[in-house]
């Protein structure tokens, strides 16, 4: 056997990213923003009844509709077909169907147990495990970047938000075979409210720190990291000191920032906001701006911190007035 040794090169690898959340947590949306930032010809292997079509304005991509039965072999065939067609980014939306969907591994286990092992599902897993492994290997060996989404089991909880109690959805365990998360370069768990991403695994070093929304800029930073860049935070493009002298905020309640240094304008609006209602509008607009890549995730994070601090300043005043 001839042994081949080569120099390690990050650029020789392809990204394997997993986004998880409960239903409605922004997995498809986030995956497409990442794909756009990475660049390249993109296809979505869609098991969600065409849900990716709803986001055609986000990115120029094609769709491969995968219908039941969701066997591992059908996923492998779809991945191979996408590679043969020259796609550089493959989004699998979602991997959960291969495990617990119609015709997926759990259904196959029951069928095989009844047909071959007198109902013994433990023995049936000896047949399913190699088939599931072939699916995972197809992801790992793909010549394209692969972004997968996966559903997590949903649990609701009552939380306190600025003194008010509300019910929110929490992401729990990924609905897939145990250990799948270990196979990915990065695993991001999306919080339902606001589509913020928290990292549970990251080999890039990009996702340290507080939760941030997934944006096109995130995909660009991943591409830069693959090309050899250090995982440094993207620099802010503007400073609050750049605000033009004499600027007014008469239009702040509508929160329609005028032309100019956007980051600085928003920072000024936050600083001069007089009530919680205005801060709420600014917060909603921040989410829109970062999702459409008009501000970076780091700018969003810093502006949100400013907004939260201003909220704390306003609340005591409001309590005294009441």
Detailed description of the structure:
This protein is 39% helix and 20% strand. The termini are far apart. The longest helix has 25 residues. Strands 1, 2, 3, 4, 5, 6, 7, 8 and 9 form a 9-stranded mixed sheet that branches. It has 9 helices and 9 strands. It folds into 2 domains: 215 residues, Rossmann fold (3-Layer(aba) Sandwich); 82 residues.
CATH-defined architecture of the largest domain? 3-Layer(aba) Sandwich
Mean of residue pLDDT values:
81
Shape: globular
Distance between the termini: 82 Å
Q: Which structural class should the secondary elements be placed in?
A: alpha/beta
Alpha carbon gyration radius: 23 Å
Largest sheet: 9 strands, mixed
Helix content percent band: 25-40%
Total beta strand runs: 9
* Total number of helices: 9
**Overall tally of domains:** 2
User: The CATH topology of the largest domain, please?
Assistant: Rossmann fold
- Low-confidence segments, ≥5 residues, pLDDT <50? 233-260, 317-322
CATH secondary-structure class of the largest domain:
Alpha Beta
CATH superfamily of the largest domain: P-loop containing nucleotide triphosphate hydrolases
Strand content: 15-25%
Element-by-element helix/strand order: EHEEHEHHHEEEEEHHHH
